[in-house]
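Note to self: keep these together.
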Amino acid sequence: MSLWEQAKSAAGQTPPYRNRTADFFRAAAITVVIFGHWLVSVPYYVDGSLQFTILLSTQPWTQYVTWLMQVMPIFFFVGGFSNAASWASAQHDPAKRRAWQASRLKRLLMPITPLILLWSLFASIAGYAGLDPDIIRTASQAALIPVWFLAVYIMVTVIVPITAKAWEKFGLWSVAFLVFGAAMIDFIAFAGGVGWVRWSNYAFVWLGMHQLGYWWFGGVKNKVAPVLLIAAGLVSLYVLIGLLGYPVAMISVPGEEVSNTRPPTFAMFAIGFTQVGLILLVTDKVANWLQNPKPWAVVILVGQRIMTVYLWHLTALLIVVGLMFLADGFGLRMLPGTSEWWLSRPLWIAAMSLVMLPLIFVFGRLESGSRQSHVEPPGPLRSALGACLACGGLTFLALDGTYANNTLGVNIIPVSLAIAGVALSTINWRHSSKNRSNGSI
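Structure:
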């Protein structure tokens, strides 16, 4: 059965209580991220060498477009809703409650494994072949940029039992605490000159957006709250950017001293409030539209392979750039930002979409397999420990790539941490061994 046939079948069997808008906005958010990366990444061929820049640097006006393209707040918001629903369901079954973290982590971590292994293999082979180490390092680091977000989201998922309890006890005050914390961190960092404290905003900002997802799951009772959220977001953007001099762009721009995303500033809350308010205002209309079988089947189809596409979309970009470079810079000689360059963008995106198809076919199977299990998963303690190891490795890989100047040509420690963390948090070795000895499949 084809993926489309599977999606149509699943659409027909969807229970009436499912919140289809959550699936829609998750798929839409990741799709925007993918096309955004493909658009803002600007490779060009100059004097026989390949150069990379970012559209936000060459065309500063596009920095305002990132207010629409920066959708990570939406993903954490929708993730909070999904985790709240899943965690609430698991409370009725002690076995599901014990396995909850491992099952969620398996879907997040398993698809990452081939990406890390193949880029490690590339680093080793390219190093032995004599390719410029800077090119190897830059390429592998660029391909693994998507894992920084997963590292944060994985840790947010690990502590869902704690954040869910906080929501039950404090409700929206738990969000207010995180919002206040993020504001204080920015104040200490920028007014007090203690820049290193900004890294703690990875917790305050993204946990705050995730906590808002609990609010959505519990039911937003009126239309006033979303309007207030939008107003709060827009006023905050005006104050931060217009009066306090925060960067305009909602993603990192090379050469700028401060980034709104790495680490996140309070501006991420501002844009997140605006986006969440808009989502809540249109939820009913989107839900009614998704009652139609075709659009709902499309959402399911995208969701079936969304993690694979997200993880491999920058690899697809690098493959296209590599082929163009080997073709003597074909398609890379246009000056970025010119009318000729803009008119070529549909073909540029089409080329990367075409390269994505075999990647989806090969690696999407692992994403499907991560939703199935015939063995008892590890308990919460092992899952949490494995997640910490994996996230430590993923963070360093997102920063430095898989290449290292050693005998293997591989950044051994972060690669080992990531793979070991995946195994520890998703595989119950003892139970698997028992099944094999009994002839189980």
